[in-house]
Amino acid sequence: MTGTIFITGATAGIGAAAARRFAGAGWKIVATGRRRERLDALVAELGAEQVHPIVLDVTDGAAIERAIGGLPAPFGDVDVLLNNAGLALGTGPAQESDLDHWRRMIDTNITGLVTVTRALLPTLIRRKGAILNLSSTAATHAYPGGNVYGGTKAFVSQFSRNLRSDLHGTGVRVTSIEPGMVETEFTVIRTGGDQAASDALYRGSNPMTAEDIADTLFWVATQPPHLNVNRIELMPVSQSVAGFQVAREA
């Protein structure tokens, strides 16, 4: 099975790994992201016949409409949408958080995702395609500092379930992919560029890799068309859900 996959956030991490995984199996890739130089490198690596790059910020609704409306013929028949673009900003408690960070997470993780999805729905319905939404274990398991990031990912998970209900009878499959600890640029971005903080978080933990998640995405996308994987939660063996925290009086 091959087809065309539209990937948001394809310039790094899981998005870039997914582009390589699908391209390696003969799929055509519409690779979108904000960093042109990384998209150019992906095209140089995988070939212009397989990758159509689009410099795109998913918070720009008009740009999304133009990009999807202008897809060239070899890449226009999108079979799979991978909503991967997203970010976390800040690690502090809600009362100390930057409101602009909250707004950026909402604009990217929620508004951007639903705008791309709505724009591609007619094609996906026509193609009886699939939607893969990158959520997180943070959608289900709360932790200190998770505040708005966890809330946005809870939206993604619930939106996926509601899409399944709305798309009943169309043949379109929808899956919420909910990874735990994956070593990518995620923590560097979250901490404002602190590579040392990222290294400390992952050190000795044997975390999942972007390639692990890309393999999972490929498996979901290539299941028989009568089979829907509703939700997958993944963690490295070293990670598990902790107990409740209790504040005690002195």
Written overview of the protein:
The protein is of the alpha/beta class and 250 residues long. It has a single domain, classed as NAD(P)-binding Rossmann-like Domain (Rossmann fold). It has 9 helices and 7 strands; from the N terminus they run βαβαβααβαβαβαααβ. Strands 3-2-1-4-5-6-7 form a 7-stranded parallel β-sheet, with helices on both faces. Helix 1 links the parallel strand 1 and strand 2. Helix 1 packs across helix 9, helix 3 runs parallel beside helix 5 and helix 5 packs parallel to helix 6. It starts with a strand and ends in a 16-residue tail after the last strand. The mean pLDDT is 96.
Strands ordered across the widest β-sheet: 3-2-1-4-5-6-7
| Biggest pleated-sheet summary | 7 strands, parallel
Instruction: Characterize the overall form.
Output: globular
How big is the Rg?
18 Å
Domain unit count: 1
Name the quaternary structure: single chain
Number of strands: 7
Q: How confident is the prediction overall: mean pLDDT?
A: 96
Instruction: Please give the share of residues in helix.
Output: 40-55%
List SSEs in N-to-C order. EHEHEHHEHEHEHHHE
Structure annotation, total helices: 9
Strand content: 5-15%
> Could you say which structural class the secondary elements and strand pairing correspond to?
alpha/beta
Task: Walk me through the topology.
Elements: E1 4-7, H1 13-24, E2 28-33, H2 36-46, E3 51-55, H3 61-69, H4 73-76, E4 80-83, H5 99-127, E5 130-134, H6 147-166, E6 173-179, H7 186-190, H8 195-202, H9 210-221, E7 231-234
Parallel strand pairs: 1-2, 1-4, 2-3, 4-5, 5-6, 6-7
Helix pairs in contact: 1-9, 3-5, 5-6
